[in-house]
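sry for the spam today, last one i promise. struct tokens for design, 353 residues
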């Protein structure tokens, strides 16, 4: 109850008391009224005391809420710092792992594909792709110092090291305009383009920006229609091709998702995208390439054009296959099977073998 309301009530009580002042002989009804007024006054004072107590508690709660808000903000700051430190530690670990491999494994003494895998390290790539690609180009040489990165994100993808450290020129294509802009600012000598990549548009895109003929590197990571985009490319001939594969499809079946020009990985479960390693290997063979290595984290596969480095043998995709740790753990914990899930949800998986 507000203090102004209390004052009005107490004023009315005072006036009623004046009517019942001592010296008068109140009637029986007046005596009852007097007792009732006394009880009301007592209850009002109790309510006033309770109100003050509630106001005090409310102030304490508001103070506590402000404290909790500050704690929550502090926790969010700590969480962001933790994520940043974790990213830096992962990068540091990747660098240390690369140095250890180079020092103790002596890649030049190993057979293929272990020779390429043991050369892996990370400067800009997601995993150890930088080192594997560098090992390949040291063996086959560099011709044009040009690349095409389809699905570059803001980081520049698998071509980032060659743009940042070796001064290569290239084309980075990303569907998200904001990420494409970030890539362009990060690599000013590169053409960074925001475009939705489809099999129907990819050759025109390459031609429009001057990337026809031979390039040293082509990387395709479009999170969905990778198989169909790679199949459609004829405008340029890359000496080395990097393709992301879906390790949830396993090592044996040659499969891909059906082509859908509007496909977005966000609209499906995490395990439904792209193509299997065996499927991409069969497609690449039809285009004149051979599988030579798979990065050990089970994300990217490396293909070499058949007219280059005959001393590097083709790898069997069933033996080269690696599953990513996160998928392997999910299969163990939740018994996830992408083929069963696709059948249960009415989604198609296309055999291309």
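last one done:
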């Amino acid at each position: 109850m507000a203090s102004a309301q209390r004052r009005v009530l107490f004023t009315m009580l005072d006036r009623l008391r004046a009517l019942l002042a001592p010296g008068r002989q109140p009637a029986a009804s007046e005596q009852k009224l007097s007792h009732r007024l006394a009880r009301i006054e007592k209850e009002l004072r109790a309510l006033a005391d309770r109100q003050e107590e509630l106001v005090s508690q409310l102030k304490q709660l508001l103070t506590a809420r402000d404290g909790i808000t500050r704690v929550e903000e502090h926790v969010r700051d700590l969480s962001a710092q933790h994520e940043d430190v974790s990213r830096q530690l992962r990068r540091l670990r990747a660098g240390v792992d690369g140095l250890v491999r180079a020092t103790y494994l002596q890649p030049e003494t190993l057979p293929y594909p272990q020779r390429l895998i043991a050369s892996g390290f990370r400067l800009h790539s997601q995993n150890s792709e930088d080192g594997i690609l560098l090992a390949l180009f040291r063996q086959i040489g560099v011709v044009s110092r040009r690349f095409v990165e389809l699905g570059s994100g803001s980081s520049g993808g698998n071509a980032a090291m060659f743009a940042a450290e070796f001064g290569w020129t290239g084309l980075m294509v990303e569907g998200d305009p904001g990420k494409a802009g970030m890539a362009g600012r990060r690599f000013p000598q590169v053409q960074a383009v925001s475009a939705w990549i489809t099999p129907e548009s990819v050759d025109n895109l390459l031609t429009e920006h001057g990337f026809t003929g031979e390039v040293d590197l082509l990387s395709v990571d479009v999170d969905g229609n990778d198989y169909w985009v790679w199949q459609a490319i004829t405008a340029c001939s890359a000496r080395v091709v990097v393709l992301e594969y879906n390790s949830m499809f396993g090592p044996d079946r040659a499969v891909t998702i059906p082509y859908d020009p509007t496909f977005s990985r966000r609209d499906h479960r995490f395990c439904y995208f792209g193509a299997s390693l065996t499927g991409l290997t069969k497609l690449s063979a039809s285009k004149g390439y051979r599988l030579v290595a798979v990065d050990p984290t089970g994300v990217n596969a490396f293909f070499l054009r058949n007219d280059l480095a005959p001393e590097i043998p083709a790898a069997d995709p069933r033996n080269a296959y690696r599953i990513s740790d996160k998928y392997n753990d999910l299969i163990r914990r939740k018994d996830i099977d992408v083929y069963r899930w696709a059948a249960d949800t009415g989604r198609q998986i296309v055999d291309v073998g």
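The radius of gyration is 36 Å. ok im logging off now
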